Amino acid sequence: MENKKKAIALLIASTIIWAGVIVGSAVVLKGTEYKESVSKILYIGVIVHMQLFNIMLFWTKKKSEFKSGLTIILSALIWGGVIIWTSTILKGTPYKDEIRNIISGATSAHLLFIWAPIGIIFKKEKKQIEQENQE
Question: CA–CA distance from 63 to each of 1, 37, 50, 69, 94 (Å)?
Answer without folding.
Answer: 12, 39, 20, 14, 47
